[in-house]
TrEMBL record:
GO MF term set: flavin adenine dinucleotide binding; tRNA binding; tRNA dihydrouridine synthase activity
InterPro entries named in the record: Aldolase_TIM (IPR013785), DUS-like_FMN-bd (IPR035587), DUS_fam (IPR001269), DusB-like (IPR004652), tRNA-dHydroUridine_Synthase_C (IPR024036), tRNA_hU_synthase_CS (IPR018517)
Protein name stated in the entry: tRNA-dihydrouridine synthase
Gene that this sequence comes from: dus
Cofactor(s) this protein requires: FMN
Amino acid sequence: MSTTLAPAPPLRIGPIALDAPVVLAPMAGITNTAFRRLCREYGAGLYVSEMITTRALVERNATTLRLIRHHESETPRSIQLYGVDPTTVESAVRILVEEDHADHIDLNFGCPVPKVTRKGGGAALPWKLGLFREIVTRAARAAGDIPLTVKMRKGIDPDHLTYLDAGRIAEDAGIAAVALHARTASEFYSGTADWDAIARLKETVTSVPVLGNGDIWSAEDAARMMAETGCDGVVVGRGCLGRPWLFGDLARALGGPQAAHGEPVDADLAFVARAFRRHAELLVEFFEDEGRGCRDIRKHVAWYFKGYPVGGDTRARLATVSTLDEIDELIDTLDLTAPYPGAAAEGQRGRAGTPKRPALPDGWLDSRDLGADASSALADAELDHSGG
């Protein structure tokens, strides 16, 4: 299942040199310290935190302060911020820099969640060019020597694309790289990502790396995206759900042998069960609570065991575990000699959703300038939702 290809050119994001041109996409409730550590154990690249709301960070919310903490083994430390107010975003960046919480900061302009776009945030925000420019410019200035990057979508819908304008603005503002999820907000995660848009962005933004995101389910997909679009690296989200060893495959395919840890994996059921158990163990350590850690691993069961001969009753019991001992007992009931099932374990994972008309503030599309009505709509946009 692993492929060895010609190594990709080295990727630098500001002063950060990556052994493999691969970035873990922020995913709410997924890319906590436990999952990032697990992915790092298999491969190389940049592993980004869950999305952090700038208002919550500035207000010193206890949960948020916990989420920005990294394990001592995590380097470089990467944090993604989401915000809609230039002053608040700037203040949040300053906190991360001055208090030494991060080595890399990413700004999220790709969230398609209606509760966010309805208030003008996420993927809706780059439509307002002046607001986008002010946020990115002030954030980049506040970041100083810490590289600041931007992640965005193509736009709101096919008739309201923003990514080329946003890419040029971000480049001029001094960001270190730009990443594009090649879908619009209206597509959510449905259909097929438009890799041609990544190629167009790469032609437009020429002084900093352009990273591609969307429909990378394997190392072969990543290599093909880079070859077809000319992008400098890839951002991987749903493709690694239940498959943290994908980063080993990616490192071997794109970064060469020095970037991956260990040999190519034989993902038989024994291997997958060990990875699942390790993930649960790291979650328990992260939450400092066995019950909470085991509750959190439940949502990963279907992803890890997709395509494997694990019966419905066992899956149901794994999805209700409360202790690591329970996990061990259930793993002992599996036929751990079962081989990798091939295509049944591959392909899309996670919810794709369906295309829908984006929820936007009244009159949002009437102008690319930010009027008084739009300014008031942004006041409640900073909610703890992720995506991109």
